[in-house]
Specification:
single chain, 3 strands, three-stranded antiparallel β-sheet, 4% strand, mainly alpha, disordered N terminus
Length: 145
């Protein structure tokens, strides 16, 4: 094994520690304990680094960890790191940021204030009506949450 490589797939060695047993089949729990020992992190942190930071798919990730593809997918799903789950988490974060931004914008807005350019057919009147409608829609969006 080359000393500069961290993983030697032919010998199933990671950082000098054998990661896959040739003589017996390990249970999921034993795989988890072995991987946590080898990497020095919890399985959630190991999966996060592989899936999110290194962008490994189930085939490459399972090969590197020395586990089955199904077990890798199971752990990825368990820790909400699958592609659809990550997209849903990202959408939820975006929605929460938008709601927070609306709350900050509407903090000092009085929706009951008088419309100044009510009877005026001008760009000023149109702008005021559009701004008021936007404020009302933002407030409505906050109430729905």
């Amino acid at each position: 094994m080359n000393t500069t490589t961290l993983y030697d797939s032919a010998n199933k060695i990671y950082k000098g520690v054998k990661i896959m047993s040739d003589d017996k089949i390990l249970t999921n729990k034993e795989h988890k304990e072995r991987i946590e020992k080898v990497y020095g992190n919890t399985i959630k942190e190991v999966m996060y680094k592989m899936v999110v930071e290194r962008n490994l798919d189930q085939w490459d990730g399972s090969k590197e960890l020395g586990i089955s593809k199904e077990l890798f997918v199971k752990w990825r799903t368990q820790h909400r790191l699958g592609p659809m789950q990550r997209a849903a988490n990202l959408a939820e974060q975006h929605r929460n940021k938008t709601i927070k931004r609306y709350q900050d914008e509407l903090e000092e807005v009085n929706l009951n204030r008088k419309i100044v350019y009510k009877n005026e057919t001008s760009l000023r009147g149109f702008k005021e009506m559009i701004e008021r409608l936007l404020e009302v829609q933002k407030q409505k969006g906050l109430l729905i949450k």
